[in-house]
Amino acid sequence: MAPNSSQPVSKIPSTKPCTEHFPRILCLHGGGVNAAIFEAQSRSLIRHLQHSFRLVWADAPFFCDPHSDIIGVYGDYAPFRRWLRWLPEHPEIDAEICIEEIGYAMQTAMKEDDREGGKGEWVGLMGFSQGAKLSASLLLEQQAREDKAKREGTEVEPSLIGIKGVNWRFGILLAGRAPLSNLNPEILKSEALVSAGNLSEGFQFCKEVDGEAMLNKPTLHVHGMADAGLHLHRKLLHEYCDKGNTTLVEWEGAHRIPIKSMDVDRVVEAIYDLAQGTGVEVVRTV
């Protein structure tokens, strides 16, 4: 019997590759979940991306109650974590200490991957929800250090992560909300940024985002059209990011990560375009 010509042929290689030398993406989960849950939620993306990147899943430093959206499926995946405060009951913390804890948590995940055999360059950040907010904030923090070095004719200062030579080329922002967090208050003074120690929800936005808080690093924004936070996702895209360096993928879903192939393929293709635009070679699976 002749094969069904209408059935699409998968471009995903049948064997799982050795990712030891692949370029690395640090993956930052949302609030009230953890790295293991984010990895499980991203399974459809991983099927494609594992053939081009080594994905490293970081756990946030602060414990919290589980997010209500995940209790039914991932209620046994404790402990649950957060990067930033978003509820009044989250303990107050000094901004400097919060930044140090975030940096140490990321450093821990990155050095652990070195020990597990990862040798590729750290090229990108991928975050969902609060992790997307943090990813964009990290890109802005790097941008601020680079701009300062250029103005002063000096070397770029070390980042909060404390690992030399890390240069984030792009960010994959899945359901990322405005505002961005200030992860380097010694350099960044913009009122459009929320202090890392403050509540990230209910922020009183200033009338206009100034140039200091405008991110011009390449970013992909993935928006679910049924997401209750869509207006804040759009605010991040249109007001905090330079439109010449952004890509938008919209899909008919709520506050979650796409899993259906028709949605996943569009996101993955956009990730490949984003990475290639910054000089990263990829194996296209869509």
Automatic annotation (TrEMBL):
Q: Which residues form the Serine hydrolase domain?
A: 23-265
Cell cycle keyword on record? no
Task: Name a GO CC annotation attached to this entry.
Answer: cytoplasm
User: Per its UniProt entry, which superkingdom is the organism in?
Assistant: Eukaryota
InterPro entries (alphabetical) = AB_hydrolase_fold, FSH-like_dom, LovG
User: Which key words tag this protein in UniProt?
Assistant: Hydrolase
- A Pfam match is FSH1
Gene3D superfamilies the UniProt entry points to: alpha/beta hydrolase
- GO molecular function terms attached to this record: hydrolase activity
Quick one: a GO biological-process term for this protein? secondary metabolite biosynthetic process
Give the protein family: Belongs to the LovG family.
Identify this protein by name.
Serine hydrolase domain-containing protein
